[in-house]
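Slide 14.
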Amino acid sequence: MNEKINYCGIDVSNETLDLYFKNKEGIEQHLQVSNTLTGFRKLLKEAGNNTHFVMEATGVYHLNLIFFLNEKKCCFSVVNALQIKRYIQMHLERNKSDKKDAKRIYEYGCDREPEKYTMPDSSYFECRSLNNSIHDLTKEITKFSNQIHSLKKCPFNAKKIEKSFLKIIKFLKEEKSKLELELHTKLVEWDEETLHLISSVKGIGKRSAAEIMVYTQSFKDMESYKQLISYAGLSPTEYRSGSSIRGRVRICKQGGKQLRNMLYMCALNAKKSNGYCRALYDRLVEKGKNKKAALIAVCNKLLKLVFGVVKNKTFYHENFVVKID
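Slide 15: predicted structure.
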């Protein structure tokens, strides 16, 4: 008979960690420690090294903790925040506090027995941080560009403001170029072969190749192209019930929004430059499909091609199609 696992739910915030676990006497206990190395040591001392720690993904606030737990060879799980949110909603919880959240995360661990988290390569975290920073700079450039467009419509003189914004945009573009160069260097150091394989597919540019590598952790644990499509939020979803509800089939959008947006732009290029994508797009449009729906199909086609070249370790050639199981 297997020994029952002792779980510890952790609600992570910027400054503190709220813990909920069973102590040595078997009594459920709440404890708050700082989100620092001192707090991590206290966590291990109180909960024990043999405890399975469960937390939700919180951007960057949980990273120091998981690096610490991984170094100490502790068992831990990092759960999608939406799963925890839905679990709490399922219990019709009216109130919210760090203590209550930690307790629910603890109960989630006991009920669902989440899988142990597999620590990605350190290169992945560096590349992800650079990639997210590039997206943030792109948003800022777009914001200031839109403001300049609005200022030009004003009935008064706003030349000084426009000049100031143009300087900011120039600076942001320069910094963005530097980060893109740094990201490319890091990706080459991480997995040069996979980067070149992805980039060989017609329609996939440098930024898109970087996005795919970061989002898939260089295709770690990707067993089929269906997983990849689902991960990008491009898999079809049906909404039907009885005879009255007949929703249209749409893409689920539960996945990488940034990756999905970039793939859509790739599809616009691929329907012109990639022979297979062009044939698919034209065939669907001729059958009466909406052009946007046809572009989504092209996105899926691109992901299939990318998965094929990476898994077969063969560069893309337009004169033949790699068979995908």
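Speaker note: The longest helix spans residues 159-199.
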